C-alpha cells in the first residue's frame, strides 16, 4: 500500500481548509478595523450644511447660494458691498467646539469663519467677533482676526496671549488700543513657524480643510492639519465664551468663495 498516495490528497485538503479559514479571519478582521477608524474620525461631528439647501442658514440671497453641493458666496460687479456680509448658522451659539470644513477661494477673494460672534444690529447680516481669516492671496489665511472689535489677535505662525486694554471703562479705550490693525495688549508666547513657510501648506484657488478647536480661552486654527495660529484669550473684558457661527464675503472687488463638508462637534 502506498501511504504517500493516500495521505497526500488528505493533507492537501486539510491545508486548503486551514488556508481558507485564515483568509476568512483576515477578511472579517480587516473591515472591523476600517470601520473603527472611520467611526473615530466622525465621532461627535454633525453636518450643519446639507449641500442642497440653505436650511438653517440666513444671509443675503444676493450673495449666497448653493451650487454643486457647495455653499457659495459671490460678489459680482453689479452687487458690490458697502459692508462685509455673512451667512449665519441658525442652529445655536456654540461655546466650546470643533469645526471642520473645506474652502476654496478665488485669488481676489476675502472671507473668513466667524465664531463666538454677536450680531451687529445696525448692519444686516453682520457679525462682530473672532474670525479664522481666509483670503485668496494667502496673506492672512490662518490668522485670528476679531471682526469689528480688537482686530488682529494672532498672525499666522504666532501663539499669542491677549490681555485687556488699560482703563477699559474709558470711552474709546478699545479703539485706542488698536494700532496698525492689531491689538496692542498681546504677548507672543511661541512661534508656530515662519509665516511664509506655513503659507506653502495652503493651496491657492483649490480646496483646503480648516479645523478650528475652540475650548475655553484657547483658540486654535488649523489648515490642512497644520496649526497656523493660537490665541490664549485672557482679556476678561472683551472676550466672548459663546456666540454665532457664520462665514463671510468681504467688501472689495468681485470675488467668489466656496464652502463644503461643514461639520460641528460640541465639546
From TrEMBL:
Gene Ontology molecular function, alphabetical: hydrolase activity
Keywords: Hydrolase
3-keto-alpha-glucoside-1,2-lyase/3-keto-2-hydroxy-glucal hydratase domain boundaries: 44-265
A UniProt-annotated Pfam family: 3keto-disac_hyd
Organism the protein comes from: Arenibacter algicola
Listed InterPro entries: AL/BT2_dom
Gene3D superfamilies: Exo-inulinase, domain 1 (2.60.120.560)
Name of the protein in question: Glycosyl hydrolase
Organism domain of life: Bacteria
Amino acid at each position: 500500500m502506498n501511504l504517500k498516495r493516500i495521505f497526500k490528497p488528505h493533507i492537501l485538503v486539510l491545508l486548503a481548509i486551514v488556508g481558507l479559514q485564515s483568509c476568512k479571519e483576515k477578511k472579517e478582521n480587516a473591515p472591523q478595523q476600517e470601520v473603527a477608524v472611520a467611526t473615530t474620525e466622525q465621532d461627535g461631528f454633525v453636518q450643519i450644511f446639507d449641500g442642497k439647501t440653505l436650511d438653517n442658514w440666513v444671509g443675503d440671497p444676493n450673495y449666497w447660494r448653493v451650487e454643486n453641493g457647495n455653499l457659495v458666496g459671490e460678489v459680482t460687479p453689479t452687487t458690490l458691498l458697502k459692508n462685509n456680509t455673512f451667512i449665519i448658522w441658525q442652529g445655536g451659539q456654540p461655546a466650546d467646539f470643533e469645526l471642520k470644513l473645506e474652502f476654496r477661494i478665488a485669488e481676489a477673494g476675502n472671507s473668513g469663519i466667524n465664531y463666538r460672534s454677536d450680531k451687529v444690529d445696525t448692519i444686516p447680516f453682520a457679525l462682530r467677533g473672532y474670525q479664522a481669516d481666509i483670503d485668496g492671496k494667502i496673506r492672512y489665511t490662518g490668522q485670528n482676526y476679531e471682526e469689528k472689535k480688537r482686530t488682529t489677535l494672532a498672525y499666522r505662525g504666532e501663539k499669542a496671549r491677549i490681555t485687556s486694554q488699560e482703563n477699559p471703562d474709558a470711552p474709546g479705550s478699545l479703539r485706542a488700543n488698536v494700532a496698525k490693525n492689531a491689538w496692542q495688549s498681546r504677548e507672543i508666547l511661541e512661534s508656530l513657524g515662519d509665516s511664509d513657510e506655513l503659507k506653502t501648506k495652503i493651496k491657492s484657488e483649490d480646496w483646503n480643510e480648516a479645523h478650528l478647536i475652540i475650548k475655553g480661552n484657547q483658540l486654535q486654527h488649523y489648515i490642512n492639519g497644520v496649526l497656523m495660529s493660537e490665541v490664549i484669550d485672557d482679556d476678561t473684558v472683551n472676550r466672548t465664551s459663546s456666540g454665532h457661527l457664520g462665514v463671510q464675503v468681504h467688501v472689495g472687488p468681485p470675488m467668489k468663495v466656496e464652502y463644503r463638508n461643514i461639520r460641528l462637534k460640541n465639546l
